[in-house]
Amino acid sequence: MNLLRPDSFDKVLLPNAEAHCLPAWCYTDDEFFELERKQVFGRAWVGVGRQELLPNAGDYRTLDVAGTPIIIVRGEDGTLRAFSNACRHRGMRLLEGEGSCRAISCPFHGWKYKLNGDLLGVPHMEQAVGFDRQTFGLTPVRLEVSDGFVFVCLDPDQVSLKDWLGDFSERHAAYGFEKLRCTWQTTYEVDCNWKPFVEVFMEYYHLNWVHAQTFDEIAYKPPVPHEETSGNYTTVFGYHNEGSAAVIDKMADALPPIPGLPEDLQRATRYTMVFPGFIMAATKDCMWYFECHPLSANRSRFVLGTCFPEETIAMDGFEEIQKSYQERWHVAAQEDIDVLERQQLGLASPLATSGPLSHLEYAVGDLAKFIAGEVTPRS
Ligand code: FES
Q: Could you tell me if the CB of 138 is within 6 A of ligand 1?
Protein backbone atom coordinates (compact mmCIF):
# COMPACT_ATOMS: atom_id res chain seq x y z
CA MET A 1 0.00 0.00 0.00
CA ASN A 2 1.16 3.50 -0.77
CA LEU A 3 0.97 4.98 2.72
CA LEU A 4 2.72 2.21 4.65
CA ARG A 5 6.49 2.81 4.74
CA PRO A 6 9.27 1.22 6.80
CA ASP A 7 9.29 4.21 9.17
CA SER A 8 5.48 4.62 9.43
CA PHE A 9 5.36 3.41 13.01
CA ASP A 10 8.68 4.68 14.34
CA LYS A 11 6.97 7.15 16.70
CA VAL A 12 4.27 4.64 17.65
CA LEU A 13 6.89 2.15 18.79
CA LEU A 14 8.75 4.55 21.09
CA PRO A 15 8.50 3.95 24.87
CA ASN A 16 5.10 5.05 26.20
CA ALA A 17 6.22 8.42 27.55
CA GLU A 18 7.47 9.40 24.08
CA ALA A 19 5.04 7.47 21.88
CA HIS A 20 2.62 8.99 19.38
CA CYS A 21 -0.75 7.65 18.33
CA LEU A 22 -1.13 5.88 14.96
CA PRO A 23 -0.84 8.00 11.81
CA ALA A 24 -4.17 9.60 10.88
CA TRP A 25 -4.48 7.57 7.65
CA CYS A 26 -4.67 4.37 9.73
CA TYR A 27 -8.19 5.57 10.67
CA THR A 28 -9.39 6.59 7.23
CA ASP A 29 -7.62 4.70 4.46
CA ASP A 30 -9.55 1.91 2.72
CA GLU A 31 -6.43 -0.11 1.93
CA PHE A 32 -5.26 0.04 5.52
CA PHE A 33 -8.73 -1.08 6.62
CA GLU A 34 -8.40 -4.14 4.37
CA LEU A 35 -4.91 -4.82 5.69
CA GLU A 36 -6.21 -4.70 9.27
CA ARG A 37 -9.08 -6.98 8.36
CA LYS A 38 -6.68 -9.58 7.00
CA GLN A 39 -3.69 -9.21 9.31
CA VAL A 40 -5.35 -8.16 12.57
CA PHE A 41 -8.95 -9.42 12.75
CA GLY A 42 -8.21 -12.33 10.39
CA ARG A 43 -5.52 -13.70 12.71
CA ALA A 44 -6.58 -12.71 16.24
CA TRP A 45 -8.88 -14.34 18.74
CA VAL A 46 -11.87 -12.01 18.34
CA GLY A 47 -14.26 -11.56 21.28
CA VAL A 48 -17.90 -12.09 20.29
CA GLY A 49 -19.93 -11.84 23.47
CA ARG A 50 -21.12 -14.22 26.15
CA GLN A 51 -21.72 -17.95 26.14
CA GLU A 52 -24.91 -17.73 28.27
CA LEU A 53 -26.67 -15.89 25.44
CA LEU A 54 -26.89 -19.22 23.59
CA PRO A 55 -27.99 -21.51 26.45
CA ASN A 56 -29.81 -24.35 24.65
CA ALA A 57 -29.03 -26.87 21.93
CA GLY A 58 -29.81 -25.28 18.57
CA ASP A 59 -29.46 -21.67 19.76
CA TYR A 60 -27.45 -19.77 17.16
CA ARG A 61 -26.28 -16.35 16.05
CA THR A 62 -24.64 -15.23 12.82
CA LEU A 63 -22.00 -12.57 12.40
CA ASP A 64 -19.11 -11.48 10.20
CA VAL A 65 -15.54 -11.68 11.47
CA ALA A 66 -12.90 -10.07 9.24
CA GLY A 67 -15.38 -10.20 6.36
CA THR A 68 -16.06 -13.91 6.89
CA PRO A 69 -19.68 -14.89 7.65
CA ILE A 70 -19.85 -17.38 10.49
CA ILE A 71 -22.47 -19.24 12.54
CA ILE A 72 -22.10 -19.83 16.28
CA VAL A 73 -24.39 -22.63 17.45
CA ARG A 74 -24.77 -24.79 20.55
CA GLY A 75 -24.77 -28.50 19.81
CA GLU A 76 -26.87 -31.34 21.24
CA ASP A 77 -23.87 -32.18 23.44
CA GLY A 78 -23.88 -28.68 24.97
CA THR A 79 -20.73 -27.59 23.10
CA LEU A 80 -20.62 -24.19 21.46
CA ARG A 81 -19.14 -24.38 17.94
CA ALA A 82 -18.49 -21.99 15.06
CA PHE A 83 -18.77 -22.74 11.34
CA SER A 84 -18.50 -20.93 8.05
CA ASN A 85 -21.98 -19.62 7.18
CA ALA A 86 -21.76 -20.97 3.62
CA CYS A 87 -23.32 -24.16 2.31
CA ARG A 88 -20.84 -26.81 1.17
CA HIS A 89 -22.91 -27.35 -1.99
CA ARG A 90 -22.92 -24.01 -3.82
CA GLY A 91 -22.14 -21.51 -1.13
CA MET A 92 -25.56 -20.32 -0.01
CA ARG A 93 -25.59 -18.33 3.22
CA LEU A 94 -27.29 -20.79 5.53
CA LEU A 95 -28.60 -18.78 8.47
CA GLU A 96 -29.43 -15.12 9.09
CA GLY A 97 -29.65 -13.18 12.35
CA GLU A 98 -30.15 -15.29 15.44
CA GLY A 99 -32.60 -17.88 16.67
CA SER A 100 -32.95 -21.56 17.44
CA CYS A 101 -33.06 -24.56 15.12
CA ARG A 102 -32.97 -28.35 15.34
CA ALA A 103 -30.71 -28.64 12.29
CA ILE A 104 -29.15 -26.21 9.82
CA SER A 105 -31.05 -26.44 6.53
CA CYS A 106 -29.97 -24.80 3.33
CA PRO A 107 -32.84 -22.87 1.75
CA PHE A 108 -31.42 -23.33 -1.78
CA HIS A 109 -31.45 -27.11 -2.46
CA GLY A 110 -32.24 -28.56 0.93
CA TRP A 111 -28.93 -29.89 2.21
CA LYS A 112 -29.29 -30.34 5.95
CA TYR A 113 -26.51 -30.22 8.57
CA LYS A 114 -26.49 -31.47 12.16
CA LEU A 115 -25.73 -28.97 14.92
CA ASN A 116 -22.20 -30.40 15.07
CA GLY A 117 -21.71 -29.53 11.39
CA ASP A 118 -22.04 -33.05 9.95
CA LEU A 119 -23.97 -33.27 6.71
CA LEU A 120 -27.21 -35.08 7.53
CA GLY A 121 -29.37 -35.17 4.43
CA VAL A 122 -28.82 -34.49 0.73
CA PRO A 123 -31.74 -34.78 -1.69
CA HIS A 124 -31.18 -36.04 -5.26
CA MET A 125 -27.45 -36.64 -5.02
CA GLU A 126 -27.55 -40.41 -5.58
CA GLN A 127 -26.29 -40.05 -9.16
CA ALA A 128 -23.34 -37.81 -8.22
CA VAL A 129 -20.35 -40.07 -8.79
CA GLY A 130 -17.89 -40.27 -5.91
CA PHE A 131 -19.98 -38.02 -3.64
CA ASP A 132 -19.15 -38.77 0.00
CA ARG A 133 -21.50 -37.09 2.46
CA GLN A 134 -18.97 -37.51 5.27
CA THR A 135 -16.53 -35.08 3.67
CA PHE A 136 -19.01 -32.24 3.17
CA GLY A 137 -19.76 -31.15 6.72
CA LEU A 138 -19.75 -27.44 7.53
CA THR A 139 -16.32 -25.82 7.55
CA PRO A 140 -15.36 -25.35 11.20
CA VAL A 141 -14.01 -22.11 12.65
CA ARG A 142 -12.01 -22.17 15.90
CA LEU A 143 -14.09 -21.20 18.95
CA GLU A 144 -13.04 -21.21 22.60
CA VAL A 145 -14.58 -19.80 25.76
CA SER A 146 -12.74 -18.07 28.59
CA ASP A 147 -14.36 -16.50 31.67
CA GLY A 148 -17.77 -16.79 30.00
CA PHE A 149 -16.61 -14.82 26.93
CA VAL A 150 -16.78 -16.43 23.48
CA PHE A 151 -13.83 -15.94 21.14
CA VAL A 152 -13.43 -17.08 17.54
CA CYS A 153 -10.29 -17.26 15.43
CA LEU A 154 -10.02 -17.67 11.64
CA ASP A 155 -6.31 -18.51 11.71
CA PRO A 156 -5.64 -22.24 12.12
CA ASP A 157 -2.03 -21.48 13.08
CA GLN A 158 -2.83 -19.00 15.84
CA VAL A 159 -1.91 -20.00 19.42
CA SER A 160 -4.65 -21.29 21.74
CA LEU A 161 -7.01 -18.78 23.36
CA LYS A 162 -5.34 -19.51 26.71
CA ASP A 163 -1.98 -18.47 25.32
CA TRP A 164 -3.51 -15.45 23.55
CA LEU A 165 -5.01 -14.18 26.82
CA GLY A 166 -2.01 -14.91 29.05
CA ASP A 167 -2.79 -13.79 32.61
CA PHE A 168 -6.21 -12.29 31.72
CA SER A 169 -8.19 -14.78 33.84
CA GLU A 170 -5.99 -14.38 36.92
CA ARG A 171 -6.09 -10.57 36.72
CA HIS A 172 -9.91 -10.50 36.54
CA ALA A 173 -10.60 -13.45 38.85
CA ALA A 174 -12.06 -11.35 41.70
CA TYR A 175 -15.00 -10.32 39.49
CA GLY A 176 -16.02 -13.93 38.77
CA PHE A 177 -16.82 -13.17 35.12
CA GLU A 178 -17.82 -16.77 34.48
CA LYS A 179 -20.65 -16.52 36.99
CA LEU A 180 -22.09 -13.25 35.65
CA ARG A 181 -25.07 -13.30 33.29
CA CYS A 182 -25.79 -10.96 30.40
CA THR A 183 -29.11 -9.17 31.01
CA TRP A 184 -29.26 -6.62 28.22
CA GLN A 185 -27.76 -5.97 24.79
CA THR A 186 -27.97 -3.00 22.46
CA THR A 187 -26.19 -2.06 19.24
CA TYR A 188 -24.56 1.19 18.13
CA GLU A 189 -23.58 1.97 14.55
CA VAL A 190 -21.11 4.80 14.50
CA ASP A 191 -19.63 6.96 11.73
CA CYS A 192 -16.05 6.39 12.75
CA ASN A 193 -13.29 3.87 12.35
CA TRP A 194 -13.37 1.08 14.97
CA LYS A 195 -10.22 2.26 16.75
CA PRO A 196 -11.41 5.63 18.14
CA PHE A 197 -14.35 3.88 19.82
CA VAL A 198 -12.23 1.31 21.62
CA GLU A 199 -9.51 3.87 22.36
CA VAL A 200 -11.83 6.34 24.10
CA PHE A 201 -13.20 3.52 26.26
CA MET A 202 -9.68 2.89 27.53
CA GLU A 203 -8.47 6.39 28.39
CA TYR A 204 -9.15 8.77 31.29
CA TYR A 205 -7.88 11.86 29.47
CA HIS A 206 -11.27 12.79 27.98
CA LEU A 207 -13.39 12.27 31.11
CA ASN A 208 -13.23 15.85 32.43
CA TRP A 209 -14.31 17.28 29.11
CA VAL A 210 -16.60 14.80 27.40
CA HIS A 211 -18.36 13.49 30.51
CA ALA A 212 -17.95 16.53 32.78
CA GLN A 213 -21.69 17.01 33.27
CA THR A 214 -22.55 13.35 33.80
CA PHE A 215 -19.97 11.51 35.90
CA ASP A 216 -19.04 14.13 38.49
CA GLU A 217 -20.41 12.04 41.34
CA ILE A 218 -18.09 9.18 40.56
CA ALA A 219 -15.03 11.44 40.83
CA TYR A 220 -12.49 9.28 39.12
CA LYS A 221 -8.98 9.44 40.48
CA PRO A 222 -6.04 9.01 38.09
CA PRO A 223 -5.52 5.37 37.09
CA VAL A 224 -2.78 3.34 38.67
CA PRO A 225 0.46 3.22 36.63
CA HIS A 226 0.64 1.07 33.52
CA GLU A 227 0.28 -2.62 34.39
CA GLU A 228 2.31 -5.12 32.41
CA THR A 229 0.33 -8.10 31.13
CA SER A 230 1.47 -11.41 29.72
CA GLY A 231 -1.40 -11.63 27.20
CA ASN A 232 -2.67 -9.80 24.15
CA TYR A 233 -4.61 -7.27 26.18
CA THR A 234 -4.15 -3.99 27.97
CA THR A 235 -5.89 -2.90 31.15
CA VAL A 236 -6.49 0.33 33.09
CA PHE A 237 -7.42 0.22 36.75
CA GLY A 238 -8.50 3.22 38.79
CA TYR A 239 -10.21 4.14 42.03
CA HIS A 240 -13.16 6.49 42.41
CA ASN A 241 -15.69 7.51 45.05
CA GLU A 242 -18.01 5.02 46.69
CA GLY A 243 -20.57 3.37 44.47
CA SER A 244 -20.80 1.84 41.08
CA ALA A 245 -19.23 3.40 37.99
CA ALA A 246 -22.24 2.08 36.09
CA VAL A 247 -24.97 4.35 37.43
CA ILE A 248 -25.34 8.15 37.31
CA ASP A 249 -26.53 10.29 40.26
CA LYS A 250 -28.66 7.46 41.58
CA MET A 251 -26.09 5.98 43.89
CA ALA A 252 -28.78 5.02 46.39
CA ASP A 253 -30.16 2.67 43.77
CA ALA A 254 -26.86 0.97 43.18
CA LEU A 255 -27.14 -2.78 43.34
CA PRO A 256 -25.21 -4.96 45.82
CA PRO A 257 -21.58 -5.78 45.13
CA ILE A 258 -20.51 -8.80 43.15
CA PRO A 259 -20.43 -11.58 45.79
CA GLY A 260 -16.99 -11.93 47.30
CA LEU A 261 -15.57 -8.79 45.66
CA PRO A 262 -12.89 -7.35 47.98
CA GLU A 263 -13.78 -4.04 49.62
CA ASP A 264 -11.16 -1.97 47.79
CA LEU A 265 -12.44 -3.18 44.40
CA GLN A 266 -15.87 -1.83 45.33
CA ARG A 267 -14.46 1.69 44.89
CA ALA A 268 -12.72 1.00 41.61
CA THR A 269 -13.25 0.12 37.97
CA ARG A 270 -11.06 -1.97 35.68
CA TYR A 271 -11.17 -1.30 31.94
CA THR A 272 -9.69 -3.96 29.68
CA MET A 273 -9.19 -4.32 25.94
CA VAL A 274 -8.46 -7.76 24.54
CA PHE A 275 -6.72 -7.01 21.27
CA PRO A 276 -7.76 -6.15 18.76
CA GLY A 277 -11.01 -4.53 19.94
CA PHE A 278 -12.97 -6.46 22.55
CA ILE A 279 -13.45 -3.99 25.42
CA MET A 280 -14.96 -4.49 28.86
CA ALA A 281 -15.24 -2.77 32.23
CA ALA A 282 -15.76 -4.35 35.63
CA THR A 283 -16.83 -2.43 38.72
CA LYS A 284 -18.48 -2.90 42.10
CA ASP A 285 -21.69 -4.59 40.96
CA CYS A 286 -21.49 -5.47 37.27
CA MET A 287 -19.46 -5.84 34.10
CA TRP A 288 -20.17 -4.47 30.64
CA TYR A 289 -18.49 -5.13 27.31
CA PHE A 290 -18.59 -4.08 23.67
CA GLU A 291 -18.14 -6.43 20.73
CA CYS A 292 -16.29 -4.59 17.97
CA HIS A 293 -17.43 -5.06 14.35
CA PRO A 294 -15.55 -2.87 11.85
CA LEU A 295 -17.76 -2.20 8.80
CA SER A 296 -15.53 0.08 6.75
CA ALA A 297 -12.68 2.53 7.32
CA ASN A 298 -15.15 5.07 8.66
CA ARG A 299 -18.11 3.07 9.95
CA SER A 300 -18.32 0.55 12.81
CA ARG A 301 -20.84 -1.45 14.79
CA PHE A 302 -20.55 -2.13 18.51
CA VAL A 303 -22.72 -4.49 20.53
CA LEU A 304 -22.98 -3.54 24.20
CA GLY A 305 -23.69 -6.36 26.65
CA THR A 306 -24.27 -5.82 30.38
CA CYS A 307 -23.77 -8.53 32.99
CA PHE A 308 -24.75 -8.93 36.64
CA PRO A 309 -24.45 -11.71 39.23
CA GLU A 310 -27.32 -14.22 39.33
CA GLU A 311 -28.07 -13.21 42.94
CA THR A 312 -28.57 -9.60 41.85
CA ILE A 313 -30.72 -10.53 38.87
CA ALA A 314 -32.99 -12.54 41.22
CA MET A 315 -33.65 -9.50 43.47
CA ASP A 316 -37.09 -7.91 43.55
CA GLY A 317 -37.12 -4.81 41.37
CA PHE A 318 -33.94 -5.67 39.46
CA GLU A 319 -35.52 -4.94 36.07
CA GLU A 320 -36.59 -1.49 37.19
CA ILE A 321 -33.25 -0.62 38.84
CA GLN A 322 -31.39 -1.88 35.80
CA LYS A 323 -32.98 0.91 33.78
CA SER A 324 -30.85 3.54 35.53
CA TYR A 325 -27.76 1.50 34.62
CA GLN A 326 -28.92 1.30 31.03
CA GLU A 327 -29.40 5.06 31.03
CA ARG A 328 -25.81 5.54 32.20
CA TRP A 329 -24.41 3.23 29.56
CA HIS A 330 -26.42 4.93 26.85
CA VAL A 331 -25.54 8.48 27.95
CA ALA A 332 -21.84 7.63 28.17
CA ALA A 333 -21.86 5.93 24.77
CA GLN A 334 -23.70 8.82 23.13
CA GLU A 335 -21.41 11.45 24.65
CA ASP A 336 -18.43 9.51 23.30
CA ILE A 337 -20.03 8.93 19.89
CA ASP A 338 -20.69 12.67 19.41
CA VAL A 339 -16.99 13.31 19.93
CA LEU A 340 -15.75 10.32 17.92
CA GLU A 341 -17.73 11.24 14.82
CA ARG A 342 -16.14 14.70 14.94
CA GLN A 343 -12.72 13.13 15.53
CA GLN A 344 -13.26 11.01 12.41
CA LEU A 345 -13.93 14.16 10.37
CA GLY A 346 -10.68 15.67 11.61
CA LEU A 347 -8.70 12.50 10.96
CA ALA A 348 -9.91 12.56 7.35
CA SER A 349 -8.17 15.87 6.72
CA PRO A 350 -5.08 15.61 4.49
CA LEU A 351 -3.39 17.85 7.07
CA ALA A 352 -4.20 15.58 10.07
CA THR A 353 -1.14 14.50 12.04
CA SER A 354 -0.51 12.00 14.82
CA GLY A 355 0.27 13.59 18.17
CA PRO A 356 1.98 12.50 21.40
CA LEU A 357 0.03 10.63 24.08
CA SER A 358 -0.62 11.59 27.71
CA HIS A 359 0.17 9.14 30.50
CA LEU A 360 -3.63 8.91 30.86
CA GLU A 361 -3.77 7.34 27.38
CA TYR A 362 -1.25 4.55 27.65
CA ALA A 363 -3.77 1.94 26.51
CA VAL A 364 -4.18 3.89 23.25
CA GLY A 365 -0.43 3.50 22.79
CA ASP A 366 -0.63 -0.21 23.61
CA LEU A 367 -3.26 -0.77 20.91
CA ALA A 368 -1.20 1.24 18.41
CA LYS A 369 1.87 -0.89 19.13
CA PHE A 370 -0.17 -4.09 18.75
CA ILE A 371 -1.55 -3.00 15.37
CA ALA A 372 1.82 -1.81 14.15
CA GLY A 373 3.25 -5.23 15.02
CA GLU A 374 0.48 -7.12 13.24
CA VAL A 375 0.47 -5.15 9.98
CA THR A 376 4.23 -4.91 9.60
CA PRO A 377 5.49 -7.68 7.30
CA ARG A 378 7.27 -10.43 9.24
CA SER A 379 10.68 -11.52 8.10
FE1 FES B 1 -27.01 -25.22 -0.23
FE2 FES B 1 -27.35 -25.96 -2.71
S3 FES B 1 -26.33 -24.21 -1.99
S4 FES B 1 -28.04 -26.96 -0.93
A: no
